[in-house]
Design brief:
alpha/beta; 3-stranded antiparallel beta sheet; binds pyridoxal-5'-phosphate
């Protein structure tokens, strides 16, 4: 089936109906009226100053601890360039965000994947690795509604990780773009807020709460590290996009962001319910845990399923997903990530029906 009719569970991006286009248009207009100079100038590498202050207030930190970037991917890249050299050990979750793996591979890191459980990183596996002599520089953790698994790190494990970081002298990189998108359950404190030893560097983004095209994200960390990264940022691009950041500032300071987050959360909650119900009905073999927020659900199929073949069969039927293998260094051939952020509620039943048909065809071929 050709691309136009494809139902995509692949893209970790919002569908247009949950982007507040009108709010953004109004915020843009206000940004140019209120601060034409600051909005149109180069600015400085730390970002648009009022937005930096707004973010600092949200996290209860000094503005010197914040650097606003072109999307949090840019923040990740700056941090990796600053802290990760060729051969340095970095702990990541298994599975983890494919672009994190790519960024670390590009820098020649020695990547150690540590298992991910329903309540987050397997901290005992990490403790064993450390006891065996591993000396990571950094542990990259996506604490809320993890990409790709949708799981959330428990409160106990947050504390345990902070202890391990202190005892074994590594930095926790808390990569947290989905934190605001909790639609059920209790919000947990960030490791940044629990940290007493400057062990945590935190990144988040407006991609999921405003829109991804605006490309605004940020880092929060020890002021000295942020100053070093700001120098790196100056040398890279003088400054990030001031127009975008000024618009985001208006969107945030006017309170519009609160409405936007409510819209996104209620749509995602509806979609995840529909997706879970459709999977139970259409693919009873599928194992999954509906997440409490965020964009993604991880699905495990029986061990003998080949996700490459399923991917091709699904594409032929006009449905897309991301193979679990993309988020791993090895294994996971029976797993996939379904994003429910980019599909509208009325596409979900049809999308899962197509996926189920592809799955049944695979099963039939495997048994002949
Ligand atoms: C865990 C994680 N980190 C970072 C990013 C990048 O976000 P941004 O759009 O702010 O660059 C994403 C986007 O999907 C993500 O899932």
């Amino acid at each position: 089936m050709a691309g136009g009719d494809t139902i995509s569970f692949a893209r970790g991006a919002p569908s247009l109906d949950i982007v507040d286009v009108e709010g953004l248009r109004e915020s843009a207009s206000r940004a140019f009226e209120r601060d034409p100079g600051g909005t149109t100038a180069y600015g400085t590498s730390i970002g648009y100053v009022p937005l930096r202050q707004w973010i600092a207030d949200q996290h209860g930190v000094a503005p010197e601890q914040v650097l606003v970037t072109n999307g949090s991917m840019q923040a990740d890249a700056f941090l990796f360039d600053e802290l990760v050299g060729e051969g340095d050990t970095v702990v990541v979750e298994r599975p983890t965000y494919d672009r994190t793996l790519l960024g670390l591979k590009q820098r020649g890191a020695d990547i150690r994947m540590v298992g991910l459980e329903q309540d987050g990183l397997d901290v005992e596996e990490l403790a064993t690795l450390l006891a065996q002599g591993a000396r990571p520089k950094l542990a990259h953790i996506i604490p809320n509604f993890q990409n790709p698994a949708g799981y959330t790190l428990s409160r106990d494990k947050r504390d345990r990780l902070l202890h391990l970081a202190r005892d074994h002298d590594f930095v926790i990189f808390e990569d947290d773009p989905y934190v605001a998108l909790r639609f059920t359950g209790e919000t947990l404190p960030t490791m940044l807020s629990l940290d007493r030893d400057e062990r945590v560097v935190y990144a988040s983004s407006f991609s999921k709460t405003v829109c991804p095209g605006i490309r605004v994200g940020y880092l929060v960390g020890p002021a000295e590290l942020i100053t070093r990264i700001a120098k790196r940022a100056t040398n890279t691009y003088i400054s990030p996009n001031m127009v975008a950041q000024s618009i985001v500032y208006e969107f945030c300071s006017s309170g519009r962001i609160r409405d936007s987050i409510e819209t996104v959360k209620s749509a995602l909650a509806e979609r995840v319910d529909l997706l879970a119900a459709a999977l139970e009905r259409e693919i009873p073999d599928a194992r999954f845990t509906p997440p409490e927020g965020g964009y993604f659900m991880w699905v495990e199929l029986p061990e003998d399923v080949d996700v490459d073949a399923l991917f091709t069969a699904a594409a032929e039927r006009g449905v897309a997903f991301v193979k679990g293998t993309d988020f791993l260094l090895d294994g996971g051939r029976n797993t996939l990530r379904l994003a429910y952020s980019g599909v509208t509620a009325d596409q979900i039943d049809e999308g899962v029906a197509r996926l189920a048909e592809a799955y049944r065809q695979q099963r039939k071929q495997a048994t002949v």
